[in-house]
Amino acid sequence: MESDSGRLLIWREQRTRYHQSNTVERHSYRGGGILVWAGISLGGHTDLHVFHGGTVTGLRYRDETLDPYVRPYAAAIGNDFILMDDNARPHRARIVEEYLEHHGLERME
Fold first, then answer.
1. What GO terms are given for molecular function (predicted)?
2. 75 to each of 4, 6, 70, 80, 105, how far by Cα in Å?
């Protein structure tokens, strides 16, 4: 039976929930996820960046977002630019701290 909600309804006798005739073996495979990054401000936004495969490390964050997206965007904004992030580990990695300091990019604390 199918309901209006699209759910499959199953009717069975009481206390037979786990009876072999009422169970179906199923293999669940979790699908892969996708991680995206974008810079957003009152006056505009950066392009969307998709991290393909693997874990995002401080090195990847620096090389794939800070250098190609954040630094040029910060230059366009000027002295009022402040970087805000969510304190994820890659955002707080030493390599990221050094990059921000080297390029004079201020971060919101």
1. nucleic acid binding
2. 54, 51, 9, 10, 9
Structure tokens given for 31: 């699908």
Note the pTM of the prediction, 2 decimals: 0.69
93's CB contacts (< 8 A; 6+ apart) are 57, 58, 59, 61, 62
In sign, the C-alpha dihedral spanning 9, 15, 18, 19 is: negative
Residue with tokens 């009481």: 14
pLDDT digits (tens, 9 = 90+) for 25-63: 777 767 677 899 999 998 899 999 999 988 999 999 999
Kind and range of the H or E run holding 60: helix 58-61
C-beta separation of 58 from 95 below 8 A: yes
What six digits make up the tokens of 107? 């971060």
Both tokens of 106, joined, read: 């201020």
> Which tens digit of pLDDT belongs to each residue from 69-103?
999 999 999 999 999 999 999 999 999 999 999 99
